[in-house]
Amino acid sequence: MSQNRVTFGIEKLHIAYLNTTTPTPTWDTPIPIPGAVRFSPEPQGEETTFYADNEPYWTYTSNNGYNAELEMANIPDEVLAALLGWEIDANGMLVETTDGEPKEFALLGQVLGDKKNRRFAYYRCKASRPSKEHSTRAESVEPATETLNIRILPIEINGRNIVRGVLELNDKNQAVYDSFFTNVVIPGATVGA
After folding, report:
1. Highest taxon of the source (predicted)?
2. What does the alpha-carbon distance between residue 117 and residue 111 come to, in Å, rounded to a whole number?
3. Which of 22, 90, 121, 144 is 20 to 30 A distant from 63 in Cα terms?
4. Do residues 113 and 23 make contact, with C-beta atoms less than 8 angstroms apart?
């Protein structure tokens, strides 16, 4: 249970590419991506209500993951190329292709709390082309950001459909908390066992 009254900020953003060649999900080593400005996941799913005896008798809410926007100061070309299936040519030019194979990935990060920081993992993400606005310089310089649209989907881990995990340091999880950005931590994971 969280000890925080409020959370704020975003930092320590990492991505880890999903390995699709194994029967159970595994991820490559997380890569830090500095420059996180804003991350806003919007839940996807519907609530179904069944009526009987002239009243709501049964309800079900589906969890279809999230649609998210990730605003970054700048997304490195190597990351864009891998995420979207684009290419970097011999001259170092980032080439947007129409037939590339995008990579799915886990998105890891940390939000600050008034008592303790909370680390999050969204396990199966798919990115689409980022939007970026360029404008003329005026009296003051305003940095341009890039916004990446991300579809966050459920993934089967140990027989359960999982979307995300959130971890706050407590007296039982120090090792898992400390290793959060070195490996993708799945629910129930132990370190050094």
Report:
1. Bacteria
2. 6
3. 22
4. no
pLDDT one digit per residue (tens) for the chain, 193 residues: 678 788 899 999 999 999 988 888 999 999 999 999 999 999 998 888 989 999 989 888 888 899 999 999 999 999 999 999 999 999 999 999 999 899 999 999 999 988 889 999 999 999 998 888 778 888 888 888 999 999 999 999 888 999 999 999 888 889 999 999 999 999 887 765 4
Q: Are 122 and 41 in contact (CB under 8 A)?
A: yes
**Rounded Cα gap, residues 119 and 4, in angstroms:** 13
**28 vs 41: CA distance, rounded Å:** 23
- For residue 101, what are the domain limits? 7-178
Residue 184, in any domain of the structure = no
Q: Rounded distance, CA 77 to CA 91, Å?
A: 13
Q: 6, 11, 1, 3: which is closest to 180 by C-alpha?
A: 11
Domain count, the chain: 1
- 40, two tokens: 């806003």
Strand partners, 122: 107, 164
Of how many residues is the chain composed? 193
Look up residue 55 and give its two tokens: 């009243």
Helices (H), the chain: 77-84, 174-178
